Amino acid sequence: MGIFDSLRKRKIQKYTDVCRYIWKNYVPEEGQADSLQGELLREIEKLRWEAQENGNINWDEDFAYFCGFISNKLSEQSIFSEDEKEEAASIMARLKSYGEYSRKVNDGEIPQDEIDMNRIAYVEDDLYDIICDKIARLHMENPEPMPYEKNKAICR
Q1: How many domains would you assign to the chain?
Q2: Is residue 156 in some structural domain?
Q3: Within a domain: 153
Q4: Residue range 47-72, pLDDT digits in tens
Q5: What pTM did the predictor assign?
Q6: Nearest 5 degrees, angle CA 129-CA 132-CA 134?
Q7: Which domain does 21 fall in, by range?
Q8: Residue 154 forms part of a structural domain
Q9: Is residue 26 part of a domain?
Q10: 8 Å CB contact between 134 and 75
Q11: Burial class, 75, CB count within 10 angstroms (exposed 0-12 / middle 13-18 / buried 19+)
Q12: What distance in Å separates the CA atoms of residue 9 and residue 99, rounded to the nearest whole number?
């Protein structure tokens, strides 16, 4: 059984209320957040929205950056075990692979008759929810806003 098969059997989104709190208090209506917790949640929700609502049609360097940023920041946190860090990295790599495939489709690198519609966007909530729960746990361990230096190169 692979990592993604075992994830599907897990009850998803344990910390919805914590995520709502972070969203309400740390995520601005537009632009990047001022705290790490807020920015991580903002980015994963941007990735979810792009996949579920737009089928990754707008996939660009910002979305690819979000995948790496989330993976790296979660892997830096001592509250997570090595397995949890690996899980986050695997999830973010998978979400990025969908986006990169979609980018290739949009750029015409994949012929129309060869497009695999199941690889364009990951639209199930489970993987996004697992990352959201990790962000919530980070917030529960660090209830004060954690410093985040905005990336001026990000437009989304």
Answers
A1: 1
A2: no
A3: no
A4: 999 999 999 999 999 999 999 999 99
A5: 0.91
A6: 115
A7: 3-141
A8: no
A9: yes
A10: no
A11: middle
A12: 24
CA–CA separation, 63 and 111 (whole Å) = 23
pLDDT digits (tens, 9 = 90+) for 15-32: 899 999 999 999 999 999
- The average pLDDT across 108-123 equals 95
Question: What is the residue type of 151?
Answer: N
**Of 76, 71, 126, 132, which is closest to residue 96 (Cα–Cα)?**
71
According to the 3-state scheme, what is the secondary structure of the chain? CCHHHHHHCCCCCCCHHHHHHHHHHHCCCCCCCCEHHHHHHHHHHHHHHHHHHHCCCCCCHHHHHHHHHHHHHHHCCCCCCHHHHHHHHHHHHHHHHHHHHHHHHHCCCCCHHHCCHHHCCCCCCHHHHHHHHHHHHHHHHCCCCCECCCCCCCCC
Burial tier of 128 (Cβ tally within 10 Å: 0-12, 13-18, 19+)? buried
Q: Is the pLDDT of residue 96 over 90?
A: yes
